[in-house]
Amino acid sequence: MKKFLLRQCLAVLPILLGVTLITFFLLQLAAEDAADMLYRQYGAVSEAVKAQTRAQLGLDRPLYVQYFSWLLHLLSGNAGYSYISGLPVSSIFWERLPTTLFLAAASLLAALCISLPAGFYCALRHNKKADYLLQLFSFGGSSMPGFLLALLLIYFFSVRLQAAAVLSSSGSLTAFVLPVITLTVPIAAKYTRYIRGEVLRELQQPYVYGALLRGIPKNIILKQYVLHAISLNMLTVTAMSAGSLLGGTAIIESIFMLDGIGRLTVEAIVMKDYPVLQACVIWSTLIFILVNLAAELLCSRLDPRNSIFSQERL
Asked: Cys-Cys crosslink for 262: which of 135, 198, 207, 253, Cβ 3.0 to 4.6 Å?
């Protein structure tokens, strides 16, 4: 296990380095820098003042010097300071992180609670009206853009029915109702179709016919055999969704004005706040890698046939 983790960590380092390089130098292609954005709200400002600000922020140095200076500070645990607010990037990031964590966890949990029974129901009602109806809803849910679904939910539940708040404080649970629904619908729709296909495939396996011939009740077969068989693949799919959600739900957080990592990324892009944006990009990359690594380790523990631990013993 130690050798496997060491190999994975060594493989992650070039990816993270490449992400930081690409992000940093692509940002330099913008027509305006942080000093221009900072003084835009004050109207006309002399170039001398802007030049002094660029010198204070270190923007007048060569690009490679700026990059390596930032990278060395990052490796020492200092992600720098925001160009706009002047606050430490780490404090801004950790302040926004709980919102994204709660939003992602609630959305994934709700999606699994909906898609597992719906997927099994579709598989057991294969080619019947209920199956076709649920498949229709799943295709519609997975095809609808997230921003459109968010606007529709705001219109019906907040404007017409006035049953849900849109601009509640991020600490209030009511602020998460519509965002969680918005994220849950496409995930649950995708999972329902995936689970349906996996269950149908498992029901055609010889061990299912053998269990039925031995008189084992069908509900026992579904719970103890089929559910266990599809759980490994579902774990991988869920890990990919979790990595994407934790990486930042930028559009949804921006629409519902939630102070999460996604909205922080959008704000950093608009304001050319490079240190904050770099931290958000690295977080998105790192969390996606770590979540999938954890899923791989868990799958290896649950399935001894493909276990990395047993392979290392050999």
From this structure: 253
Please report the DSSP string for 31-72 in residue order. Answer: SS-HHHHHHHTT----HHHHHHHHHHHTTTS-HHHHHHHHHH
* Closest to 99 in 3D by CA, of 31, 155, 180, 158: 180
54 domain residue, yes or no: no
Model pLDDT for residues 57-80, shown as the tens digit of each residue: 777 788 788 888 877 877 777 777
| Residues 17-57 pLDDT 10s | 888 788 777 777 766 666 776 676 666 677 787 788 778 77
For position 149, which CATH number holds?
Answer: 1.10.3720.10
Domain-located, residue 279? yes
Q: In terms of residue numbers, what domain contains 281?
A: 89-313
Q: What tokens were used for 272?
A: 């050319």
Q: Which residues of the chain have pLDDT under 50?
A: 308-314
Flag whether 251 is in a domain: yes
Contact 295, 206 (CB under 8 A): no
Two tokens at 47? 């170039």
- Decide: 285 and 181 in contact? Cβ < 8 Å: no
Torsion of CA 75, 78, 83, 87, to 10 degrees: 160
- Number of domains, the chain: 1
Q: Which residues of 245-277 are buried (b: 16+ CB within 10 A; e: fewer)?
A: bbbbbbbbbbbbebbbbbbbbbbbbebbbbbbb
